[in-house]
Automatic annotation (TrEMBL):
It holds the Pfam family NTF2_SigF. Keywords: Membrane, Transmembrane, Transmembrane helix. Residues 1-119 form the SigF-like NTF2-like domain. It comes from the Eukaryota. The keyword Transport does not apply. This is SigF-like NTF2-like domain-containing protein. The chain crosses the membrane at residues 82-102, 160-189.
Amino acid sequence: MEDPVREIPTVIELLTESPPTLQASTVEKFFTPNASFTHPFCRTLSFNGSRWLVLAIYRFYKIMSPRIDLQVKSVAFDQEHLKLYVTISQIFSIFIIPFYIAPVTLTTVLTLTTNPNEYRGYLDFPNDQGKSVDSESEETRRYWISSQEDLYQTTEFVKFFLPFGIGVSMVLVWHLFATIGCVLGSLLLSPITWAEENLAMKKEIREVSGRNVTDVAGHVVERVTHETSDIINGVAKSVQDRLK
C-alpha cells in the first residue's frame, strides 16, 4: 500500500467479501510472509510462512459466513509508530444457525512495515524496477501488514457463540453488578482515598517548608482553589452539554 488510509477499506473488502482465489492473492500481496493474526478466538505466531495461517483463518471466516455485510467506519494512521486503526461494523451470518445474524463492531489494529524482507535478509517483495524496498523514496514508500489484531468489546464477541441477545444480556447484567461493586468498593475503602490525599498534602507542605507560613498557606489555598475551579468548570460544561 502506498496510501494506507485510502487503500485499507478496499483491502478489507477483498479479504472478507471476495472469491477464494482473489482472497488468497490479497493476503499474499498485502501481508508479509511472517504476518501474525490475533482475535478473541484464535491467534497465530509470527514465523516464516505464518501468512498461510492468516489465509486459512480468512478462508474459514468466509465458510462460516458466506454473506458478509461490512463497512469501514473510520481509519486513523499513526505514521510514527506504523499503526493503522480501523473501526469496522459488520453483519455476520453464521450458516449453522438459521435466521440469525450478528451485527458487531470492532476495532482492527494493523501493524505496518516498510521493509517486509528484513526478518530473513533477502527480497520477497521487490518493487517494479527490481530494487529493494529500502531504496524507495518517501513519495513512493510502500507499506505491508505485519500483524493484525481484532479488538471486540465483550458485548460484541459474545454474539458469535451466544445468539439472539442471550450473551449480550448476560454481559450487561455482569457490567451492572461490576459497576455496583466499584461504587461500594469506593465507599468502603474511602479511608484509603483520605489517607492518600493527606499524604499528598503533607508532601507539598514539606516541599515548601523553607518558606514562611504565609507562603505555605498561600500555596495550599492556590491548589485547593485550582482544583475547585476545575470541578466547577467540569460541572458547568456537563450542564451545558445536556441543555444543547
